Amino acid sequence: MTDQILSNIVNSAAFAFLGVILFAVAFLIFDLLTPGKLWDELSAKQNSAVAIVIGCVAIALGIIVAAAIH
Questions:
Q1: In this predicted structure, what is the pLDDT of residue 30?
Q2: In whole angstroms, what is the distance from residue 37 CA to residue 40 CA?
Q3: Ramachandran bin of 36, using left for φ above 0, alpha for ψ from -120 to 50, beta for the remaining angles
Q4: Do the Cβ atoms of 5 and 44 come closer than 8 Å?
Q5: Beta strands of the chain (E only): which ranges?
Q6: 65, 22 in Cβ contact below 8 A?
C-alpha cells in the first residue's frame, strides 16, 4: 500500500513539473509571436489590456496542459 502511495506522489510531482515546463515554453512562444515584449508592456507601461490578454492566455494554456496530462 505504501508503494502505491509513493508511486502516486512521484507521478503527481513528475506531471506537475512537466506541466509547469510546458506552460513556460508555450508562454515564451506566445511572447515571441506577439509584437514587442509583453513583460515591458506590463511592468513599465502598466498596460491593463495586455494584462487581461496574458491572463486569458495563461488560463487557456493551463487548461490545455492539464487536459493533455490528464
A1: 83
A2: 5
A3: left
A4: no
A5: none
A6: yes
